[in-house]
Write a structure and sequence with these properties.
This protein is an alpha/beta fold and 296 residues long. 44% of the residues lie in helices and 12% in strands. It binds NADP nicotinamide-adenine-dinucleotide phosphate (NAP).
């Protein structure tokens, strides 16, 4: 069972419309024609910038994270500045009950048109000094929660033949040797999962975008154990990261890597990866394994 450090503050049952209204900050009188974007990890960093940019693009919002005070302060500001309806749900996605409540919201709220799976934590510790319980909690948040939320909303979006899922991976999902191995592998999962979501959902009218930020100046680095990274000359601001990621979404990208200037290098790498697939279909081992005569 994953470690849970804070209690989910949702009501015990599937949230009703009334529940949302009680927790909505400054509801706009008219629902947005763009619908509602549910953003996880919206209390800080990249998620808070997504909330800001999506409200300015005309989305109503449901903001999810553990810190209720920070969520409500952001909701009040965004609602005042944009006139959009902003709901907040304080929930710990490392807690199975808290996660189930957000899954229920995604299944039941017909206004939701976008899910931004952004909540995540990282680490710079090696296998020899990382805490295994923290690693398990990281796997639960970065992989299990993202997967369950995607599975909750995908059938809804498919039934309406519309909807967008944005999954936040990381450049270390490819450059796996740079940080903690469990973190990198969790982000490789998000990238792989995104490829198969595109295979399963593209012809159902559902858009999937996988975003691979490289180092971005957020509190992520304090939690990960290397705060100095925030001051590095090669670290991007969260504002630039999200603006570029949304530009990539507008351009129809399936995978967006804001810091990668040579976009063709991704295209080549991805083309080569896909070209490997048919080569795996062989009943016999490759000659380089030189099996004894009669076996190969
Ligand atoms: P951040 O500033 O630390 O924000 C993380 C967000 O996730 C916060 O809103 C936090 O809010 C929320 N969160 C953490 N644990 C949670 C839990 N158990 N349940 C619900 N919400 C939780 O980090 P960030 O840089 O914005 O990270 C956002 C995403 O970008 C992550 O998936 C991260 O892996 C990815 N990313 C970041 C970088 C980078 O350099 N910053 C690079 C590549 C990828 P509460 O504390 O209020 O719950």
């Amino acid at each position: 069972m994953p470690v849970s450090s804070s209690k989910c503050t949702l009501t015990p049952d599937i949230p009703s419309r009334e529940y949302f209204e009680r927790n909505t900050i400054m509801t706009s009188p008219t629902p947005s024609p763009k619908g509602t974007a549910l953003v996880t990890g919206a209390s800080a960093g990249i998620g808070a910038v997504y909330a800001d940019r999506l409200a300015r693009r005309g989305y109503d919002l449901i903001l999810v994270a553990r810190n209720a005070g920070r969520l409500q302060a952001l909701a009040a500001r965004l609602s005042a500045e944009t006139g959009r309806s902003v709901q907040t749900i304080a929930a710990d996605l490392n807690d199975k009950a808290g996660l189930s409540k957000i899954e229920a919201v995604l299944r039941k709220d017909p206004s939701i048109t976008m899910l931004v799976n952004n909540a995540g934590v990282g680490s710079v510790a090696s296998v020899l000094n990382a805490d295994i319980d923290e690693m398990e909690a990281m796997i639960f948040l970065n992989i299990t929660a993202l997967t369950r939320l995607t599975y909750a909303v995908a059938p809804v979006f498919a039934s309406k033949a519309s909807g967008t899922i944005i999954n936040i991976s990381s450049a270390v999902g490819i450059a796996v040797e740079l940080l903690n191995g469990v973190y990198s592998a969790s982000k490789s999962y998000v990238l792989s999962f995104g490829h198969t979501l595109q295979r399963d959902l593209a012809d159902k009218g559902v858009r999937i975008q996988t975003v691979l930020p490289a180092a971005t100046a957020t509190d992520f680095w304090d939690v990960a154990g290397y705060p100095k990274q925030k001051e590095s000359a090669s670290t991007m601001t969260a504002g630039d990261l999200v603006d570029a990621a949304l530009a990539g979404l507008d351009q129809g990208e399936l995978v967006t890597i804001p810091t990668l200037h040579d976009g063709e290098s991704w295209t080549r790498w991805e083309t080569d990866r896909r070209a490997l697939a048919p080569q795996f279909a062989n009943a016999k081992p490759a000659p380089r394994y030189a099996l004894p005569a009669g076996k190969a």
